[in-house]
Write a structure and sequence with these properties.
605 residues, Glutamine Phosphoribosylpyrophosphate, subunit 1, domain 1, Rossmann fold, 2 domains, 6-stranded antiparallel β-sheet, 16% strand
Length: 605
C-alpha cells in the first residue's frame, strides 16, 4: 500500500512549485508511512509515500531508470504477482535490474512494451510513468487500487491515490452538484463508474489507462471480461478452479514482511487462509462486535455469527489466531474518521468497524489477505438466484428509493433520482456480452456477475482500500484476480450453482481443504451491529447534526429526519443497500454525510 501524487503541466514551467506537490504528498502519508520521495521536472512533479513490503531497502520511489538515453520515472501503488516471470522475460530481452522489487519490473515492462505492458500485468496496481514529454497512467483490471484525477481549465492535470490529495490543491473547489447529490441518493453508497461525489474530480475506470502529452490526452479501456464458450466439463472445471485459486493465493503471499489474513469462518476467507497457511506461516484475525451475541437475530440476510466457525477454521489450519473485539460505541464515534478515510459518506458502521479492526491488525502486520470478491465472481448473493431480485429492473441491491427521497428537503425531492438510476443501469446493461448458446440462466448469471463486479464489488474494494490504507495496511484480494474472473465468468450457471447451493462449484473445488461445517455453512455477510445502544448513540449524533449543521437541512427535511430518529430507523426493515444496511445504518450514513459536507467545506451547486 502506497500513495502517489502528480502535477502535470505541459504549458508552463512548474519546477519552482514544489510546495504544491509536497502539500499533496502530506495528505497521503498514512498510505505510506515508511518512506517518501519527490521528483521535480520542468513540467512534471511526482511524489510518493511508501509502505515497504518488497525489497525494503532498495525499492524506494519515485524510481528512475535511464534506458537508451531516455529517463523514465515511475510512482506506483500495488503489487505485481507475476513480476518474477516478467523479470525473466525482460532479462532475456536485455534489460538489467538493480533491485528485487516489482516496481522496477513494472517500469522496465513499460520501457519494453509501452502502453501494452498493462495487458501482461497480473496484480493490483495504480501507477504514473513519466518520460520525455509524456505521461502514462493506468489502473488494474478490476479496480482494486484507486486512481483519481482532475484536469483544470488551464490544461494542468492533478493525479492522486486519494481525493484529499487533489483537494490539497487550493484551486480545486469541493463542489457537490445537485446531480451528484441525486446520484448519491439513487445509487449510494455505490458511485457511477468513473465518477466521484466531487465536481470535476474523477476516478480512472478499472482496466483503463490514460496517456497525456502536450498535444492531447487519450483514455483507453485495455481490459474487458472475456466472453467465450466454456469447454471444460464439470470435473475439469473443478480441478482447474482449485489450481487457479491455489496458485493465485500462493502468489499473493509474496512479501518480505510477515503475512496475515482476515478469517470470518465463511467459505471465502477460509479458503484463502487454508491455502495461504500451506505456503507460509500466517496470523489470522477475526472481528467480534462486543455484546452483539445478546442482540443478534438470525435472518435471511445474516443467518449466523462468525465466532464458532472462525475458531473451528483457525484450529483446522493451526494458525496464530487472534480475536479482535470492537466496542459498539467506538464504532459510532469512529464514523467520522471512517468518512475521512474515504473522503465521502459511505458504508456507515460497516466502514467504522473495519477501521477499528484494521487498526488492531496494524499493530502486528502491514499485509493482510481477504476473501472479498468471491461472492461477486461466483454468484454468492441472493440476487443471483432469487426470482424477485433477478427480475428487478434496476441494480438488485438497491431498495427503498421512495422512502429515501421522502427524507429530502422538498427542493431535493424534485431531482431526477429515478432517471439517474435508470440511465446508469441501462448504460451498464448495454455493455454486457452474451453468447448465442447461453441459456436463460446463463444470461442472468452473466448479467448479475457483470453488474456485481463493476458496481457492488467496486463499492467494497474502495471501502477496503480506503479504510486499510488509512492505517497503513495493504489488503490483498485473491478472488479479484483477472484470470480467475475471466474463467469463472463463462462457467455455466448449472455448474456454478452445483447442488442448488450458492457458490456450489467453489465449495466442491475445495471440499478436501475445509471442515464440513465450513463447507456447508450458508453465506453470512460481514458482521454488523444489532446492539440497541449503537442505534441510540447514532440517533443522538444525528440529532446534534440537525441542530449544529444548517447545511444538512439544505438537503434533508427536518421533520422527516426527526421521524426517522424517533422510529430509530424501523421504517427501513429491509436493507436499503446490499444485505446489511437498514435503518440504523441509514441514520449513520446521513450523519457521515453531514460531517462530510461540513469538514470538507462542500459547496452546493
Amino acid at each position: 500500500m502506497c500513495g502517489l501524487a502528480a502535477i502535470i503541466n505541459y504549458r508552463r514551467d512548474i519546477s519552482n512549485e514544489v510546495y504544491r506537490i509536497e502539500k499533496m504528498n502530506r495528505k497521503l502519508v498514512q498510505r505510506g508511512p515508511d518512506d517518501s520521495g519527490i521528483v521535480v521536472r520542468k513540467n512534471v512533479l511526482l511524489a510518493h509515500t511508501r509502505l515497504a513490503i518488497m525489497d525494503v531497502e532498495k525499492g524506494k520511489q519515485p524510481m528512475e531508470v535511464v534506458y537508451d538515453g531516455v529517463l523514465y520515472t515511475i510512482i506506483y501503488n500495488g503489487m505485481l504477482y507475476n513480476f518474477k516471470e516478467l523479470k525473466e522475460e525482460l532479462v532475456s530481452l536485455g534489460h538489467m535490474f538493480l533491485t528485487e522489487c516489482d516496481t522496477e519490473v513494472l517500469l522496465h515492462s513499460y520501457i519494453e512494451w509501452r502502453e501494452k505492458c498493462v495487458e501482461r500485468l497480473n496484480g493490483i496496481f495504480a501507477f504514473v510513468i513519466s518520460h520525455e514529454q509524456e505521461i502514462f497512467a493506468a489502473r488494474d483490471p478490476f479496480g482494486v487500487k484507486p486512481l483519481y484525477y482532475s484536469m483544470k481549465n488551464d490544461g494542468e492535470w492533478l493525479i492522486a491515490s486519494e481525493i484529499k490529495a487533489i483537494l490539497a490543491e487550493e484551486s480545486i473547489r469541493p463542489i457537490l452538484t445537485k446531480h451528484n447529490f441525486a446520484s448519491m441518493i439513487a445509487l449510494g453508497p455505490s458511485l457511477e463508474s468513473g465518477q466521484t461525489l466531487y465536481k470535476n474530480i474523477y476516478a480512472l475506470h478499472p482496466g483503463e489507462s490514460l496517456k497525456i502529452n502536450k498535444f492531447q490526452h487519450k483514455y483507453h479501456q485495455y481490459h474487458h471480461i472475456k466472453v467465450c464458450e466454456h469447454k471444460d466439463d464439470f470435473n475439469e472445471t473443478v480441478n482447474k478452479l482449485h489450481y487457479m485459486v491455489t496458485q493465485c493465493i500462493h502468489s499473493q503471499c509474496l512479501s518480505d514482511v510477515p503475512l496475515s489474513a482476515m478469517l470470518s469462518g465463511g467459505l471465502d476467507s477460509s479458503i484463502v487462509c487454508s491455502i495461504a497457511s500451506q505456503y507460509r506461516p500466517i496470523t489470522t484475525y477475526s472481528l467480534l462486535l462486543k455484546d452483539n451475541e445478546e442482540y443478534f437475530e438470525s435472518n435471511q440476510y445474516q443467518p449466523s455469527q462468525d465466532k464458532e466457525y472462525a475458531f473451528l477454521m483457525a484450529d483446522h489450519i493451526h494458525s496464530d489466531h487472534k480475536y479482535i473485539e470492537v466496542d459498539q460505541l467506538q464504532m459510532a464515534y469512529a464514523l467520522e474518521e471512517a468518512m475521512q478515510a474515504r473522503d465521502m459518506c459511505a458504508m456507515a458502521d460497516i466502514d467504522s468497524s473495519l477501521l477499528l479492526f484494521a487498526k488492531e491488525i496494524k499493530k502486528g502486520h502491514k499485509v493482510v489477505l481477504s476473501g472479498e470478491c468471491a461472492d461477486e465472481v461466483f454468484g454468492g448473493y441472493p440476487w443471483f438466484y432469487k426470482e424477485e431480485l433477478v427480475n428487478k429492473d434496476t441494480f438488485p441491491w438497491l431498495n427503498h428509493l421512495p422512502q429515501k427521497i421522502a427524507l429530502l428537503n422538498p427542493n431535493m425531492r424534485e431531482l431526477d433520482h429515478y432517471g439517474i438510476r435508470k440511465s446508469v443501469y441501462e448504460k451498464e446493461l448495454d455493455k454486457i456480452m452474451y453468447l448465442e448458446s447461453d441459456t436463460v440462466e446463463d444470461k442472468i448469471s452473466k448479467k448479475m456477475t457483470y453488474l456485481s463486479i463493476y458496481y457492488f464489488m467496486q463499492t467494497l474494494l474502495m471501502r477496503m482500500d480506503g479504510i486499510t490504507a488509512s492505517v497503513g495496511i495493504e489488503a490483498r484480494v485473491p478472488f479479484a484476480d483477472k484470470d480467475i474472473i475471466d474463467y469463472v465468468y463463462n462457467i455455466p450457471w448449472s455448474m456454478k450453482y452445483y447442488e442448488g447451493i450458492e457458490k456450489g462449484i467453489l465449495r466442491e473445488a475445495f471440499k478436501s481443504e475445509l471442515p464440513k461445517e465450513i463447507l456447508t455453512r450458508k453465506k453470512s455477510p460481514y458482521p454488523k451491529t444489532y446492539h440497541p445502544k449503537y442505534t441510540e448513540v447514532i440517533s443522538e449524533l444525528l440529532r446534534q447534526e440537525m441542530k449544529n449543521n444548517p447545511m444538512l437541512l439544505y438537503y434533508f427535511d427536518e421533520i422527516a429526519l426527526q421521524d426517522l430518529i424517533d422510529s430509530q430507523g424501523r421504517s427501513f426493515e429491509l436493507p436499503w443497500f446490499g444485505q446489511l444496511m437498514k435503518g440504523p445504518q441509514l441514520m449513520a450514513y446521513i450523519y457521515q454525510f453531514s460531517r462530510w459536507i461540513k469538514t470538507y467545506h462542500m459547496i452546493p451547486e
